[in-house]
Amino acid sequence: MLATLIRRELHTSLRNPQTILQPLLFYTLTIILFPLASGADNDTLLRTAPAALWIALLLAALLAGEQLFAADYADGTLSQDRLHLPDLWLLLPAKLAAAWLRFTLPLLAILPLLALMLHIPVANIPATAALLALGSLPLLLIGALGAVLTLAQTHGTFLRFLIVVPLYIPILIIGVTAGHDNLLGLAIGGHYALLGAFSLFALITIIPFATLALKAQHLP
């Protein structure tokens, strides 16, 4: 059942390519603004590179999370899923897995070019990519929670922002710190462990609560 739902979500994404292109273009344009703002100072770019990568990831994940349920809510698919899926909780991991694949994999594909634009050494790019890939999962999970809680709200964007951004801050701090340590050649195994712990904690807490919130929504 889970694999079937993931395939459905991926097929839906292919029919609506904006779900892939919008977060990716947003991430790319945000990164491009940092060199324009800081000028041609390579040292400044390198010092701000981890913050640039993670702030852009946070904002793009917020956009990707907003798209998780919007189309299904508008066309009634979400109502049908709530009525006919025997295990509604499977819808959450299916949407998150599909969102991670269509959001994170394209991002990792263009990351080497963006990293070189920020003057990140080539040797540090694999670790940077691994940190972003791991950090994107809890960001998407938190974004999914915000999307579910504000699903029936007419003007829920600001409310969603208030819900998810405070929860994003610990992940942002760990990610930026890990990025700086990576550039300095320090060990970052502890940062991987923290991001993994955040991901696991988010999985076992957000999916049940988001499922309950989905059942409580007044869907059309």
From TrEMBL:
Bilayer topology term: Multi-pass membrane protein
Q: Which UniProt keywords apply?
A: Cell inner membrane, Cell membrane, Cytochrome c-type biogenesis, Membrane, Transmembrane, Transmembrane helix, Transport
Q: Where in the cell is it found?
A: Cell inner membrane
Q: What is this protein called?
A: Heme exporter protein B
Q: According to its UniProt record, which protein family does this protein belong to?
A: Belongs to the CcmB/CycW/HelB family.
Entry's Gene Ontology BP terms: cytochrome c biosynthetic process; cytochrome complex assembly
Annotated PANTHER family: CYTOCHROME C BIOGENESIS B-RELATED, HEME EXPORTER PROTEIN B
The lineage is: Bacteria, Pseudomonadati, Pseudomonadota, Gammaproteobacteria, Cardiobacteriales
Q: GO terms for molecular function, please?
A: heme transmembrane transporter activity
Top-level taxon of origin: Bacteria
Extract the InterPro entries matched here. Answer: Cyt_c_biogenesis_CcmB, Cyt_c_CcmB_bac
Q: Membrane-crossing residues?
A: 20-39, 51-70, 90-118, 130-152, 158-180, 192-214
- Identify the species of origin: Cardiobacterium valvarum
Q: Name one Pfam family in it.
A: CcmB
Its function?
Required for the export of heme to the periplasm for the biogenesis of c-type cytochromes.
One annotated Gene Ontology cellular component of this protein: plasma membrane
